[in-house]
């Protein structure tokens, strides 16, 4: 806390400055106060909140539980029992050239985390998603430290953050009316956060911890969303001058997406 004094200013500093909050309960309650103003207009004639995300059927639920484990004596951070390891061939490059099976496996973590994780595997994590599906992602924090998660390529609706263990009955507490869309969400110790995402943006997108040592040591994954028609209306082609490496180096370039 600091005091700024202006030249010719009158009066002294306030004597009733409130003390800062202690713990994270204040932050949890603050999250619950964030709401769209549904009476305000948006960039188009339609008002904010005209996209009724709360009335869309959920097509897939994925729960991501973070853990810290030792692998060969070294600390690794894992998601549902797997710690992300970068392959020699970039994931999207392998997918575009049609050799993904030589680099990674799709859906190599379960949608529901194991109750007990006895061994952590080191490999790329890629979830195969369906274009234009509506997905519920639960970030379950089993640890005593606050987590922070970021989703590339999308703004999601942050519909709930609560303490304890998530279960389907918790959907009764979701904000399905005026939740704020955002890209990053916090998950408090021994708590969970739920987000809803409309997957309409094709590509290979990263979901990662915003705590950089965790990100570096494996707490990240990718979601793959392919264009069902290989159309440039859904996804651009790779640039003509893209550099290749790994298993795709020297391979003939695949045919481009159609218009």
TrEMBL record:
Occurrences of domain Plastocyanin-like (ranges): 90-229
Gene3D superfamilies from the UniProt entry: Cupredoxins - blue copper proteins
Record GO terms (molecular function): copper ion binding; oxidoreductase activity
Source organism of the structure: Hibiscus syriacus (Rose of Sharon)
Similarity section: Belongs to the multicopper oxidase family.
UniProt xrefs under SUPFAM superfamilies: Cupredoxins
Domain of life the protein comes from: Eukaryota
Name of protein: L-ascorbate oxidase-like protein
InterPro entries from the UniProt entry: Cu-oxidase_C (IPR011706), Cu-oxidase_fam (IPR045087), Cupredoxin (IPR008972)
């Amino acid at each position: 806390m600091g005091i700024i004094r202006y030249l010719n200013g009158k009066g002294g500093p306030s004597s009733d400055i409130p003390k800062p909050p202690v713990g994270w309960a204040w932050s949890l309650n603050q999250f619950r106060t964030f709401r769209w103003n549904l009476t305000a207009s948006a960039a188009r004639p339609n008002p904010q909140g005209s996209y009724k995300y709360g009335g869309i059927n959920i097509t897939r639920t994925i729960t991501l539980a973070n853990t810290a484990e030792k692998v060969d004596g070294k600390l690794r951070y894992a998601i549902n029992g797997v710690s992300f390891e970068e392959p020699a061939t970039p994931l999207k490059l392998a997918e575009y050239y049609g050799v993904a099976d030589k680099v990674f496996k799709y859906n190599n973590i379960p949608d529901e985390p194991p109750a007990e994780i006895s061994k952590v595997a080191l490999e790329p994590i890629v979830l195969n998603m369906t274009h234009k599906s509506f997905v519920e992602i639960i970030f379950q924090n089993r640890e005593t430290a606050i987590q922070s998660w970021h989703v590339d390529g999308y703004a999601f609706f942050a519909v709930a953050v609560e303490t304890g263990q998530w279960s389907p009955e918790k959907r009764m507490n979701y904000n399905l009316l005026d939740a704020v869309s955002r890209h990053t969400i916090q998950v408090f110790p021994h708590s969970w956060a739920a987000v809803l995402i409309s997957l309409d943006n094709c590509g290979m997108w990263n979901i990662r911890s915003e705590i950089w040592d965790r990100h570096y040591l494996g707490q990240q994954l990718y979601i793959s969303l392919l264009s069902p028609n290989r159309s440039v209306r859904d996804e651009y082609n790779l640039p003509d001058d893209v550099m290749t490496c790994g298993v795709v180096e020297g391979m003939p370039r695949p045919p481009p997406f159609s218009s």
